[in-house]
Amino acid sequence: LAQSVQDFEIIVLDDGSTDGGADIVAAINDSRVRLFRQANVGVSSTRNRAISMACGQWVAFLDADDWQHPHYLQSLVIAQDLHPLADVAATQYIPLCDSTGIWPPAWQVTDAPLAIESIELIEDLPTQAMKGPTFTTSSVCIRTTRLLEMQPCFAVGESHAEDLDLWFRVAEKSSIAWVKRPLVAYRISVEGSLSLKNTELKLPPFFHRIRARALSGAMTEFQAKSALKMVADQEISMARDALALGQRKEAILLLWSAHN
Question: How far is CA 86 from the centre of its chain?
C-alpha cells in the first residue's frame, strides 16, 4: 500500500496461518485488498490459486516475511516499458538475516531515480544464475497471460525450489527485464520460513526436470547446453559439500551424474 505506483490489486491468501496476520489484513479499509482464507494446502497450491484470481496484466509476488521498497513496482513498470516483449520483470534483492523488522540504512540510496543503464535484459538465465543470485519470489513479476497458460505454475506438493522451477520454465519462453538494484529484502532467518527447510544434500526435483527438458529437445540447442551446464555445476558443488561431510559415495555419484 506504500508503493509509489498505486494502480494495483492485492490478493491475500491466508493458507491456514495461526499468527493473526489475516485479521490484520481484514481490518484494512481498501477495496483493492482482497482476502481469502483456506485450510493449509501448501505454498504451491496457494500461489496457483492466487494467480487464477488475478485481474491485472502482471502478477507480482510477496511472501509474508519479505519487504518491498516503495519504488519497487515503479521500477518494474520502467523495466516493462523499456523491454515490452519480455514477459518477466524483476529486481535484485538483499538477503536479510534479521527477524527484528529493522531494515539496513542502505535502503536510503534506492530513492535515487532509476537509470536506464540499471536495467539488463537476461536471455540466458542458467548462465546468469551461475554467476550469482538474480532475483527471488518477492522481487519478480510475470505477465498474467504467460502464467495462466502455464498453470499449474508452481509444482504442487513441493515447498523447496518450487519457485526456481517456474522461473527457469518461464525463462525458456521469454527474456527477463532485470533491474540491477536491490529493492526487496528477503528474510532468511524467520521461524517457519521456507528458506530454512532444505537441509538434505540432494538435488531438488526441478533440476532433474530441467535436464529432462534439455535432453528431450524441448529447448533450443543453445538453451539446452546452458541448462545442462547449470545442472552439472550444481551437482559438482554438491559433491564438494558431500566430501566435506565425509560422504564419499554420495560425492562420487554426484560427480558421475555431472559428467554424464
Answer: 16
Residue 192 has pLDDT above 70, yes or no: no
* Long-range pairs of 100-109 with CB within 8 A, sequence gap ≥ 24: 103/67, 103/185, 106/182, 107/69
At residue 103 the predicted structure's pLDDT band, cuts being 50, 70 and 90, is: low
For residue 128, how far is the Cα from the chain centroid? Answer: 14
Whole-angstrom CA distances from 131 to 82, 134, 154, 240, 242 are 24, 9, 25, 18, 22
Cα–Cα distance for residue pair 208/228, rounded to 1 Å: 10
Within 8 A by CB and 6+ apart from 132, the residues are none
Beta strands 88-96 and 176-187, pairing class: parallel
Position 34, amino acid: R
Q: Tell me the pLDDT tens digit for each residue of 152-172.
A: 999 998 878 899 999 999 999
* 180, containing H or E segment: strand 176-187
The pLDDT score that the predictor gives to residue 92 is 93
H or E segment at 119?
A: strand 119-122
Distances (CA, A) of 233 to 119, 133, 206: 27, 15, 15
Measured CA distances, 140 to 15, 183, 208 (Å): 21, 11, 23
SS3 215: helix
